[in-house]
Design goal:
Chain A is 74% helix and 0% strand. Chain A is built from five helices and no strands. Chain A is elongated, with a radius of gyration of 20 Å. By secondary structure, chain B is mainly α. Chain B has a two-stranded antiparallel sheet with strand order 1-2. In chain B, helix 12 runs antiparallel to helix 13, helix 16 runs parallel beside helix 19 and helix 17 runs parallel beside helix 19. Chain B starts with 5 loop residues before the first helix and ends in a 7-residue tail after the last helix. Classes of the chains: A mainly alpha, B mainly alpha, C mainly alpha. At the A-B interface, helix 2, helix 3, helix 4 and helix 5 of A face helix 5 and helix 6 of B.
Amino acid sequence: MFDVLLKHMNYIAAMALFVIGLYTVLMHQNLIKKVIGINIMETSVFLFFVSIGMVQNGQAPIINLKDASVTYVNPIPSALILTGIVVAVSITAYSLSLIIQLYKQYGTLNLDEMVDEVEHD
Amino acid sequence: MISTQFPVYLVIIPLAIAVILPLLKQHRRLIQSIVSLTVGLMFFLALFNWFELHSFGAYAYNFGGYAANLGIQFYIDELTSLLVLFILFLSFIIISYSFADIPHELEPHQFGLYYSLILLLLFSMLGMVYTNDLFNMYVFMEILSITSTAIISIKHRKANFLASFRYLMLSSIGSITILFGLAFLYMVTGHLNMFEVHKVIQSVWTTYPMNLLLASGFILTGLGIKSAMFPLHVWLPDAHASAPSPSSAFLSALVVKVYIFAMYKILFRVLGTMMVKGLGIDQAILIFAALGMVFGSIFAIGQRDIKRMLAYSSVAQIGYIFLGLGLMSEQGLAASLFHIFSHGLMKTALFLSAGSIIFATGKRKLSDLDGIGYRMPVTMIVFSIAAFGMIGIPGVSGFMSKIYLGLALIEGQHPIYLALILLSSFLNAVYYLPIIIAAFLKEDPENRHAMKMDPLPKRMWIPMVVLAICLIVIGFYPQLIMDIIEASLPAYLVG
Amino acid sequence: MNDLIVKTIVRWVIPFIQLFGVYVVFYGHVSFGGGFSGGALIGASLILYAITFGLKASKKMVPHKRSQWMESLGILWYIALGLVGIYTSAYFLGNKAAGFYMGEAGQLLSAGIIPLLTIGIGVKVASTMITLFQKLVEENEDV
């Protein structure tokens, strides 16, 4: 039992982080916390994706010209996740700039108060 | 074939122009002519490509000449090129409308930036339609979700920021979910090219049903959030209602459709009908679609703001599209594709005419629209034609899509959903007809009996009239589009 | 903020960070890193400068106009290189077939189009990072 858990550690960790992030996004009313939640979710997926490409005793995937017998880890997931990180950065930047504007307009960071204010208008 | 490279040009031209625009002098006329020239040029490239595809057939374009399993691939078949043509045609119409409307809605210095965003939106939509690579699709999807949020928040109003923040949060949850699903797919198959993934899945889906079910569940949930499938539609009404009218038209008529098209690709090109049916995914889609059809219309009845009502009506119409999709048969798929086209045209016409009402009178409340048909006859006639289409009155394209959908339902032995279509059409009539009646039959309290031409610039009413003509032409000759769809479908339904 | 120690150390450290960033960009095709990592390093050094010396000094060093040009040119450079591939080898972003100099694996001058693309990406990422930072700070100042 414990062996199985240990073997699938990456699944468990990724799912746990994913759920924590989702909870943070959906349940917290503070906008900054929501953005943090999105980032936690993204990190969970990135960790999971990179862990798929893992090869036992593998080295970083740069061609070794002297020794052809070296095994490499799968480079594709890492390359994809690099792109994913870029996307995550841009989403974070954009949502932070939106939060700045929201704070200017409403004077609060609490989503409930904003919704109340919009509905009163 | 001369036009082999055109899909690449179609994707990079808007990108290049979008980054050049902010560097230029923010001269309104200059930006207008550059943008309309660009979109016009793209339209002709797409048209040429579409003509040549008829004689040469579908082809794959490998970036950098790498093999399909190594590099990124575009796959161009008749359906994709038709959809691209449709996207560019509608964008051209919306953009030429927006030249008059946008200065009214935004501040002068934002004019160039808005078109920069629109071109990026086009870039990502076309990329998503063309691409045959799962991860590339994800990247385009992210660009699309950021730009489509940005064209809402560009209008500096309280409600816009809130709506776009919610939209951003939900659509990033959606895209993270999709990425998670892609990780599972990649784990099982070891490929990212859709055809390669499909080949592997065909042989292994009985061995790893759990992994594949997880993968498809994650991907479809994510795409469901982005394409406003019924219980996940909560972001849509705020976002589409508060955006500037051209943006609402873009979002409702095109962006959502592109996500749905991505869903077709995932279901038919990647997973394959056999697996989807084997795992029972199609039943779930049918149920959510039916719920959306009914509840979207019910919510729309309760709205008092015209754009909010149109947004809820989109939720219902997306239900129709998913209903055709969930049938997993050729007729169902054809019907839902046809509805993508006809709903795109109808919703654009509705949002543009609602936008012109707001432009000319500043009224958004449905109760203020009494007698508006005498002050803005052209706008209200266009609105009525499109609304008749939504209800399903013969002669307008919406009727034909309902007929096709009904035939597909009978063919697929799902008569219960046919009753739901009738119910939904009835509900559509409940909220569209009162507007038309109030506009033409009630008296305007401000100026009586004075029939006038719309107080609109030419740029605004000509696009709307073109849309109305298209609606009627397709209503009478649906075969214009249906033939192409039916000819290109068998390629999709293999396996 | 007026802290002598921080300012002196930052002044000493920035050139090294930037040198490392440039190294990572140029050696992207033969070792770890590449356009994004190197560009992020350079961008981080610019952000460090902005944090220590203030927005005004940062805008003097990287005016908004210039970073905007750099951003656009990064993308246009990438597109232009891709188009070269179309005219010489019939594929967008074609590499060996497009006649780029392939060299010997492991050398600095090798891998054809890739180091050229990496430079474009590095410029784009560095300028985007500093633009984002400046814009966010600017927005926040009027609150």
